[in-house]
Amino acid sequence: MDASHVVHELSQLESLFGAVGEPSLRKQVAHLHPVYRPMIAASPFAVLTTVGPDGLDASPRGDAPGFVRVKDDKTLLLPERRGNNRIDSLRNILHDPRVGLLFLIPGVGETLRVNGKARISVDPALLEALAVDGAPPKCVLEITVEEVFFQCARAVLRSKLWTALPDSVLAQLPSPGTVLAALTDDQVDGPQYDQGLRERQRATLY
In this entry, which stretches build a coiled coil (predicted)? Predict the structure, then answer.
């Protein structure tokens, strides 16, 4: 790549985009304003971003709408349900408490962005309060909120995110078993892995 085409300075970057619109500045607040709380209550899915000694991580989190609880105007509670036990995000938080959350709401173009700092709690009362079907989370992230703002719908509109892809496209995607078989030189039996996958997932949601 021609080095002259690489942006190195903030002034160069800012000249590409121009001035920030006043609404884009005014929508950012340092607390969970009442106008933003319905978006969190309606969201069944969020992406959690963390940073650790080995780099960055972005991890999906999802449950029934409102699974991330608003404790007060500066605190969110994110239950950690069963998963693959890699705990990449949790390892990172022990190293660096900074986190980001991107909340999505099916059918809605706007997303909600929250930045803050997290700590990992195993308070029995908190685990019990966030149990589902009698199964408590493994732990709870208590997130101290520092920035909150909504993201406009352009990215969702351009991507047609909430429009299902054609079957012809979906048919070209590799299954989880196919991926594992390819990455392990067939040490994992792909078809066998896929055969019981949906039932294993259903039985171990909580």
Answer: none
Residue 134 lies in a domain: yes
Amino acid of residue 9: E
Name the nearest CA neighbour of 203 among 133, 140, 137, 144.
Answer: 133
Indicate the DSSP class of residue 136. Answer: -
> Are residues 86 and 131 located together in one domain of the fold?
yes
* CATH number, position 118: 2.30.110.10
Q: Does residue 147 sit in helix, strand or coil?
A: strand
As a whole number, mean pLDDT of residues 178-188 equals: 97
Q: Strands 69-72, 55-62: parallel, antiparallel or unpaired by DSSP?
A: unpaired
Q: Tell me the residue length of the chain.
A: 206
Q: For position 26, what pLDDT does the model report?
A: 95
Residues of the chain above pLDDT 70, percent: 100
Give 100's strand partners. 49, 115
Rounded Cα gap, residues 55 and 186, in angstroms: 29
C-alpha closest to that of 110 among 164, 62, 161, 65: 161
Taking the C-alpha atoms of residue 43 and residue 64, their distance in angstroms, rounded to an integer, is 8
42-66 pLDDT per residue, tens? 999 999 999 999 999 999 999 999 9
